[in-house]
Automatic annotation (TrEMBL):
<feature type="transmembrane region" description="Helical">
    <location>
        <begin position="79"/>
        <end position="100"/>
    </location>
</feature>
<feature type="transmembrane region" description="Helical">
    <location>
        <begin position="205"/>
        <end position="225"/>
    </location>
</feature>
<keyword id="KW-1133">Transmembrane helix</keyword>
<keyword id="KW-0472">Membrane</keyword>
<feature type="transmembrane region" description="Helical">
    <location>
        <begin position="121"/>
        <end position="140"/>
    </location>
</feature>
<keyword id="KW-0812">Transmembrane</keyword>
<feature type="transmembrane region" description="Helical">
    <location>
        <begin position="167"/>
        <end position="189"/>
    </location>
</feature>
<feature type="transmembrane region" description="Helical">
    <location>
        <begin position="6"/>
        <end position="25"/>
    </location>
</feature>
<feature type="transmembrane region" description="Helical">
    <location>
        <begin position="245"/>
        <end position="265"/>
    </location>
</feature>
<protein>
    <recommendedName>
        <fullName>G-protein coupled receptors family 1 profile domain-containing protein</fullName>
    </recommendedName>
</protein>
<dbReference type="InterPro" id="IPR019425">
    <property type="entry name" value="7TM_GPCR_serpentine_rcpt_Srt"/>
</dbReference>
<feature type="transmembrane region" description="Helical">
    <location>
        <begin position="45"/>
        <end position="67"/>
    </location>
</feature>
Length: 297
C-alpha cells in the first residue's frame, strides 16, 4: 500500500476528531455545571482520552507521507506514541468504570449526583495506574511508529511486562463492560417505575446496541492486534503492510465510535450540542428529568 496516499487518508479522517469531541466535552461540562452528574464526569474523561488519541494521529500523519521524518523526530514521535497508548488504556478502563457506575445508579445503590466512595476509589486507583504508565511511556519511549502502524519496541526495558499488563487488563474490562450494559438493560426492562413499556424497550434496545457496538469494536481491535493469542485470527498476516494500515485506521475510527454513538442515541445531549452551536449555551434541564439522562449517555 502506498504510504503517501495512506497518510493523506489518515489526515482527512483525523482532522474532524478534535472539533467533534471539543463540542461534546464542552456540552457535557456545561450540563454538569447545571446539574452535577457523575456519569458526565466519567464520560468526559473518556472523551479527553479519545481527543488525545485523535490528536496523536493527526500530529504524526506527516511521518506516513515522509517516512524520513521518523529519523529526525524519533524522540517526539515515540513520546506521542506512548501518550496515545496510555490514553487508549485509560479510555478502555474508564468505559468499564462508567458501565459499572451505571449499574449501581440504576439499581439505586448510589446517587447519580454524587461520586460514590467505591467509584471514587476505583477512579483514583485507575488514574494512579494510568499516571505511572504515562510517566514510563514518556521516560522510556516504548511505543514507535513502524509505518503504517504503531507497535511496542520490545528492546525498551520492561516493555514485555507492560505489554502483558495491558493484555491482562483489556479482556476483563471488555467482559465487565458488556455484562454491565446487559444488566442495565435487564434493570430497565423489569423496572416498575417506568411510565411506559414502549419507552422501556426503546431504552433497552438503544443501550444494548450502543454498548454492544462499542464493546465489539474494541474487542475486534484487541483480538486482531494480538493474533498470536487467538487462533481464529492467525489467518490475518500482520506482516502485510495493508493489514497493518487497516488496523491502524481502525484505531483512528475508534476515536469516533463512542462520540458518534453518544450523539445518535442520546437525544438530550444531541439537542444540547445543536443549541450550543446555534446560541452558545444549552437549556436548563427539568429537574425531574435529570436522572433519565444517564440511560442513554
Amino acid at each position: 500500500m502506498e504510504l503517501f496516499y495512506y497518510g493523506i487518508l489518515v489526515f482527512v479522517f483525523s482532522i474532524f476528531n478534535a472539533p467533534i469531541l471539543a463540542l461534546i466535552i464542552t456540552t457535557l461540562e456545561m450540563k454538569n455545571a447545571q446539574s452535577p452528574n457523575m456519569a458526565f464526569r466519567l464520560m468526559n474523561i473518556i472523551n479527553v482520552c479519545l481527543l488525545g488519541q485523535g490528536l496523536g494521529h493527526l500530529l504524526t500523519f506527516p511521518c506516513l507521507i515522509f517516512p524520513n521524518l521518523l529519523k529526525t523526530f524519533e524522540t517526539v514521535v515515540r513520546i506521542i506514541g506512548g501518550i496515545m497508548n496510555t490514553l487508549w488504556i485509560c479510555d478502555l478502563s474508564m468505559v468499564t468504570l462508567l458501565g459499572v457506575s451505571r449499574v449501581l445508579i440504576f439499581s439505586n445503590t448510589i446517587s447519580i449526583r454524587k461520586s460514590d466512595r467505591i467509584i471514587r476509589f476505583l477512579l483514583i486507583l485507575l488514574l494512579s495506574w494510568i499516571f505511572i504508565l504515562l510517566i514510563y511511556s514518556i521516560l522510556f519511549r516504548n511505543m514507535m511508529m513502524y509505518p503504517p502502524q504503531w507497535a511496542y519496541d520490545f528492546d525498551v526495558p520492561f516493555c514485555d511486562l507492560f505489554d502483558t499488563l495491558e493484555i491482562s487488563l483489556s479482556f476483563p474490562c471488555i467482559l465487565i463492560s458488556f455484562l454491565s450494559y446487559l444488566t442495565i438493560a435487564y434493570l430497565i426492562f423489569v423496572s416498575k417505575n417506568l411510565k411506559s413499556s414502549v419507552a422501556s424497550r426503546r431504552n433497552e434496545i438503544a443501550i444494548l446496541f450502543q454498548s454492544a457496538l462499542v464493546t465489539a469494536y474494541i474487542s475486534v481491535m484487541i483480538f486482531v492486534w494480538h493474533p498470536a493469542l487467538f487462533t481464529m485470527f492467525q489467518f490475518i498476516d500482520m506482516n502485510d503492510q495493508t493489514n497493518q494500515a487497516i488496523l491502524n485506521f481502525m484505531w483512528i475510527v475508534h476515536c469516533y465510535v463512542n462520540p458518534c454513538m453518544l450523539l445518535v442515541f442520546n437525544k438530550s445531549i444531541r439537542g444540547d450540542c445543536v443549541r450550543l452551536l446555534r446560541t452558545g449555551k444549552i437549556d436548563q434541564p427539568p429537574r425531574a428529568a435529570a436522572t433519565s439522562i444517564v440511560t442513554l449517555s
